Amino acid sequence: MGILLIGMSHKTSPLAIRERLSLSCENSGHPLERLRQMPSVREALYLATCNRVEVLVCTPDQAEREAGEGLKALLAERAKITLSELERCLYAFSDAEAVRHLFRVASSLDSLVMGEAQILGQVKEAYRVAVEQKATGMMLNRILHHAFQAAKRVRTETGIADNAVSVGFAAVELAKKIFGRLEGKAILLVGAGEMSELAARHLLKQGISTIFVANRTYARAEEIAGLFEGTAVSLEQIPEVLKKVDIAISSTGAPDYVLTREMVASALHRRKNRFLFLIDIAVPRDIEPSAGEIDNVYLYNIDHLQELVDENRHLREREAAKAEIILEEEIQNHLDWISSLEVVPTIVRFREKIEGIMKAELEKSASWRQALSESDQNHVESLVSSVVNKILHEPTACLREESRNRNGLAYAAALRRLFKLEK
Fold first, then answer.
1. Domain ranges of the chain
2. Which of 50, 58, 89, 398 is catalytic?
């Protein structure tokens, strides 16, 4: 049985093609339905995210090339592009390299944002669908469960996911340092920029209770407020709202300051000097820089956040080196298991033959054993069975050990010949 993985990711393919393959699952049925019908495919998994589309299959011996051609044709058909266009975006791995790639994907080492947790959930969901459609068997079940185990070790034994590597997460990290806990805090979102919206989403996940949204176009403010179950306000109301909130995120693209030092100072006085955390993600800046000089005001702009992101990214990269060592251990364990499968049929046949000889000899002795008590007959059978198990143990253990050293097939062939197991 061979293992083949064919796919594309953010490293090799434009988003437009990945989107087509992902959406095709909804528009024309799940590709597992087609994969299960291919003679060259025994088991299959289909993973589609915004950053990658991958097909992992198990193939019969000598059928890898046929399976590869079938998978490419299927992907090209679903993406509605020519095979030559598709092949420019693809990578292919087989056997040990396919296992290694899957383990790295599940552990987020191949992700656009290294250490992100979402990919593991996406792989688990793809596996759930494959199991539901009866597209997996012994090989893929074992590979996927071992990949999940490897990913868990990476997350628990390294700090690869400990530090924020996006502007939104960096804002959350800084807010926690200032306030300790974010439950019950209020937030003002000024402008409808994508980064400020993402930062707000991250903060809301930490328990922010109230959100106000101000925008040049009031209808847009109402639209964004609706997403967060918040309250829309006009730009003119910002000075009044600043008295009520703990965090303000601004990203308007306005040519002049939207939040001035005077505005912030006035709000802080009315707030009885409670901490105010200001995040300026706009370029040019929305918040007058001197506002950060006011006591109890913490002002961070996009450069501050990016510096934190870059520093944390370097920390994650250092942790990734530890993760790679863990993965190599887990990959080797899995490959040892695959190698052991090569000798299992020989071990089973060897045990069957020796146990068959034992049963035949016991049957021949049935006449004189009848003279023994039932207890003594049981003792004789137990003794013979124990001797047989002890004889089988050493060659069986040796065969398994040699399979881990990649010599299993040669030893299995010798054992089959010595004991005439082929017959």
1. 2-161, 167-309, 336-418
2. 50
What is the reported pLDDT for 24? 55
Q: Is the pLDDT of residue 25 over 60?
A: no
Residue 373: what pLDDT? 87
pLDDT averaged over every residue in the chain? 85
| Residue 201: exposure state from Cβ atoms within 10 A (0-12, 13-18, ≥19) | middle
Give per-residue pLDDT as tens, 201-232. 777 888 888 999 999 889 988 988 888 888 99
Residue located via tokens 């006591």: 295
Structure tokens of 198? 């993402």
Q: Residue 254 has what pLDDT?
A: 85
- Please tell me the class of the 167-309 domain: alpha beta
Tell me the CA distances in angstroms from 396 to 17, 350, 411, one per residue in order: 51, 9, 10
Closest to 182 (Cα-Cα) out of 202, 161, 162: 202
| Predicted confidence (pLDDT) per residue in 105-134, tens digit | 999 888 877 777 788 999 999 999 999 999
More confident residue, 324 or 197: 324
Instruction: Say yes or no to pLDDT of 255 above 90.
Output: no
Between CA 74 and CA 213 the distance in angstroms is 46
> Regarding the domain delimited by 2-161, which CATH topology (the fold level of the hierarchy) does it fall under?
Beta Polymerase; domain 2 (3.30.460)
Q: Tell me if residue 398 is catalytic.
A: no
- Residues 146, 326 contacting (CB under 8 angstroms): no
Strand partners, 214: 190, 233
